[in-house]
Amino acid sequence: MAFCNSCGATLAEGTKFCSKCGATVSANPSAMSTARPAQAPLPAPPPSKGGSSALKIILIILGIIVLILILGMVTCGVVIHHIAKSAKVSQNGDKVKIESPFGSMDTDPEQTVKELDVDIYPGAQVQKQGTASMSFGPIHTVTGIFESSDPVEKVCDFYKSKFPSANVSSSDHNQCSIVSGGAGNTTTVTVQSSGDGSKITIAKVTKK
After folding, report:
1. Percent of the chain with pLDDT over 70
2. What is the pTM of this model?
3. Which residues contact 165 (CB under 8 A, 6 or more apart)?
């Protein structure tokens, strides 16, 4: 029995044309008898979705990170706005006073000298914008910067006599520093050479 090479229809012996599709039939009967209909190619397997899933996970993670950053920026903006709104700033000449929920700062020289509670070197002048009194939580810091026309050695001797039991006392030709007090109440005096005179920095840190 013979078959059409094109459509696979059954053919009678000696047939030259397929009665179903009209294709020319091979003259070789053995070829017709052994021929089989062409099989359609198998469909290609669907592409793997592993890469697509990984990409989705990465995009989700990036989205979460961006969202967290946006929320953080919004939160910081709200906090800063609240601080700026609640902070009070007053100025009188070179005297500036700032009060905020986190603490306060005052640059009044008279108030600073009073809070330092340290004898100022005779004749020393406070530098412009050289004083500050700051409170942040339990920590209160007072700093004053002064200038004197006397040499470092003379100024250092003055403060060494004021703090005879200083914890640390070091000096050289151009500088000396004196640290007195404990962890909850510390006073530091630093004297440095400045031109023909001396610059005196006094800092007091107290913890409530």
Report:
1. 81
2. 0.55
3. 180
